[in-house]
Amino acid sequence: MGGPLAAKKPMPVPVKKTPVTDRRRDGRIDVAAAIEGEDERSRSMASVRRARERERRQQELQRLRNDGVKVVREVVVPEAITVQELANRMAARGGEVVKALFRMGVMATLTQTIDADTAELVVNEFGHRVKRVSEADVEQGLTGTADIDTDLQVRAPVVTIMGHVDHGKTSLLDALRKTDVAAREAGGITQHIGAYQVTIAGGQKITFLDTPGHEAFTAMRARGASVTDMVVLVVAADDGVMPQTIEAIHHAKAANVPLIVAVNKIDKQGVNLDRVRQELLQHEIVVESLGGDTQEIQVSALKGTNLDKLQEAILLQAEVLDLKANPDRAAEGTVIESKLDKGRGPVATVLVQKGTLRQGDLVVAGAEWGRVRAMLDDKGRQVKEAGPSLPVEILGLSGVPTAGETFVAVENESRAREISEYRQRVARDKQAAAAGAARGTLADMMARVAAGVQKEVAVVVKADVQGSAEALVVTLNKLSRDEVKVRVLHSGVGQITESDIQLAKASNAVVVAFNVRATTQAREMANRDGVDIRYYSIIYQVSDDVQAMVRGKLAPIQREKFLGYAQILQVFEVKRLGKIAGCRVTEGVVRRGCGVRLLRDGVVIHQGELATLRRFKDDVKEVTNGYDCGMSFANYDDIRVDDQIECYETETVAAV
């Protein structure tokens, strides 16, 4: 079988299969057919199916319309809405809405915003119902409902200490707190609102707000009175009733809160308490010894006399007021103070008035919002929650809120963002309106300036906290005269930046820096462009200098000349000399006998003179950039590693 015959067996011829005709390909056309136009391209089955489905849906929709059954929606229309958003709310195509607007004579694209009246016409055209709402409705229900009496619990009283400058308000509070706040205040005066809670011998708590007594801080004092339960009016037994004492009385009356008079400095010789009582009587403050209902406590902050009686008087008044709050609800309260901290970002001191604020809560404070990343009490300790009457610093806000604004804890981020954006928009609109009004008056002012009829002093204000910036603006605005106007171009919180210098240069303005410093770039730009930056830590000096500018009495004045910066690397304890700072000069030069400021986190904490300047063990006249040296301050020892030393000289220059 495996012979030659088998080898010659013919191989099977492969059957040529007839190709299966692909109907989808039948429609292919060649060049001739295309020219003659005899052939047409056929459609795919899927295309035919889609067309039939679309036709069926249209017929069904038409039948519904013919039957008179149509979906009528309630369309919410705010004060302004984009065309696309309006189409979405009506479940209509954007193009149809654009066509409807075109028929009304309004040319608008999908991304353009139309007003509520136009939107209402469009909604009516499409046969839907309109529900008009205001943008302000986002704030509805923000402040919670009224509390039920059974939910209320006793809370600590909030006491504001008020009085004339240098009458001993902060010293009295220090005696109560067993701390020394006054020593850390520049010039011995309080320039920020402080909020503290103390626990007294019986275990009861009292929250104190320490407001500055200087007249520039009227607005801050008014804010303190608006959140307080009672006011302790401090009157010095030797001075009696002074101008700011009268202002404090007015604030207390305006806030409709009870008053307790603390007559301080009774340890001084020759004080006349009857004179103080008679002066108070002139302002309708009748103390108990004269048959009135205002408690009067004679104290000495220096000796600690009768502090227990003052605490008893506060607690007695609190008992009469029956102060209660519900801690089991979303937190509400007031921003007492705010600032931009170099290392921590926006920081707000808040007083919780209702509910309990917890770490991680979402809050809206004025036009800012954020999640509470951390909370610190008045002693700098971290706390997880803060109940009614507890003042805390909160971190985590998107920006620095305005002091005096309310803060509220909200349920979710979208609500917080929505409220914040609305409030920022309102603030921008107000600012734009004010700028528009100012432009008209500015043209008139410039005409008067050109004619020599009126001059002006333009000022850019930067401060360490919001309250100080606000107080400076109030002070400067009061200095305007008929012939010379003081115009505050901008006020803000934080370091002086290049944008501040550019604004000052464009307007030929002076930059007033209150407890803050310029960045290196800003300082270089100011030197290059000839912009005058004036540094202050006491508000009296600001008003005196600007008043001198207004009156044109700037004949020979003392002006600072910046010398250099040094960084503290180590601190040594040396017998007979105290603490010595081991420093490296990081910029410019340090000279013996120059003025110095100690900066901690960009804030001035001491101003004085150099006591010693040494290289190794030798006294030297100056040390230049890049070299190490040892320094000590005259009568000051609170120095730490990483503090910065700013060196300057004072020179006398003629007024321009």
From TrEMBL:
Function: One of the essential components for the initiation of protein synthesis. Protects formylmethionyl-tRNA from spontaneous hydrolysis and promotes its binding to the 30S ribosomal subunits. Also involved in the hydrolysis of GTP during the formation of the 70S ribosomal complex.
Protein name: Translation initiation factor IF-2
Cited PANTHER family: TR-TYPE G DOMAIN-CONTAINING PROTEIN (PTHR43381:SF5), TRANSLATION INITIATION FACTOR IF-2-RELATED (PTHR43381)
UniProt entry keywords in alphabetical sequence: Cytoplasm, GTP-binding, Initiation factor, Nucleotide-binding, Protein biosynthesis
Chief place of localization: cytoplasm
Chain segments carrying region Disordered: 1-54
Organism phylogeny: Bacteria, Pseudomonadati, Pseudomonadota, Alphaproteobacteria, Acetobacterales
Keyword DNA damage belongs to the record: no
Family: Belongs to the TRAFAC class translation factor GTPase superfamily. Classic translation factor GTPase family. IF-2 subfamily.
Record field: compositional bias (Basic and acidic residues): 19-29
Residue spans of biased composition, Low complexity class: 8-18
Xref: InterPro entries: EF-G-like_DII (IPR053905), IF2_II (IPR044145), IF2_N (IPR006847), P-loop_NTPase (IPR027417), Small_GTP-bd (IPR005225), T_Tr_GTP-bd_dom (IPR000795), TF_IF2_bacterial-like (IPR000178), TIF_IF2 (IPR015760)
Residue intervals of the Tr-type G domain: 154-324
Signal sequence bounds: none
Top-level taxon: Bacteria
Residues given in the record as GTP binding sites: 163-170, 210-214, 264-267
Species, as recorded: Teichococcus aerophilus
Location within or outside the cell: Cytoplasm
Gene Ontology terms, MF aspect: translation initiation factor activity
